[in-house]
Amino acid sequence: SKIHDTALLTIEGELDDISGRGQTRAAHKLCSGVKETDRQHMVVEGAGHYGIFSGRRWRTQVYPKVRDFFATYSKR
């Protein structure tokens, strides 16, 4: 893969009716040049397509994960 020297975080909703489950995880295969230790995948249980990035799940589950991911990998 030509993509390397970066980190990868993918997020999907368990109940997403627009993007089928597993579509964001496919990015991990496409980005095989990213070290396994620099890749993370999150499935948000009970969330649909829009619920991932709005409301309670965003504030309590997704945003903390995204914030911590950026804090870890932006220091490179």
Report on the architecture of this protein.
By secondary structure, the chain is an alpha+beta fold. The protein has one domain. It has two helices and two strands, in the order E-H-E-H. It has helices at 26-30, 55-73; strands at 8-13, 39-44. It has a two-stranded parallel sheet with strand order 1-2. The chain is flat and about 35 Å long. The model has no long low-confidence stretch (mean pLDDT 94).
Q: What's the helix-strand series?
A: EHEH
Count of β-strands: 2
What value does the Rg take, in angstroms?
A: 13 Å
What's the helix count? Answer: 2
> In total, how many domains does the architecture comprise?
1
- Determine the structural class based on helices, strands and strand pairing: alpha+beta
Shape: flat
Flag low-confidence runs.
none
Largest β sheet strand count, sense and barrel closure: 2 strands, parallel
Distance between the termini: 20 Å
Main sheet: which strands, in order across? 1-2
Average pLDDT for all residues: 94
The helix content, as a percent range, equals 25-40%
Proportion of beta-strand residues: 15-25%
